[in-house]
Design brief:
mainly alpha, elongated
Length: about 55
């Protein structure tokens, strides 16, 4: 083990495990991305449509 801390191998293994967990979470969430995008798109453009409709009157 390295003096005063973790070894480089332990750090590399931990990094790989963290990246694998993040990749699995992103992979599991992929089917929901279009729905989230549509929802955010509706909020974003709906807000500006609301602003325009209020200022036109």
């Amino acid at each position: 083990m390295a003096t005063g801390g973790r070894s480089r191998i332990a750090t590399a293994i931990a990094t790989i495990v963290v990246l694998a967990v993040i990749a699995l979470l992103v992979w599991a969430a992929l089917p929901f991305f279009p729905a989230v995008g549509d929802w955010l798109d509706g909020i974003f453009f709906g807000f500006f449509d609301w602003l325009r409709s209020g200022s036109a009157e």
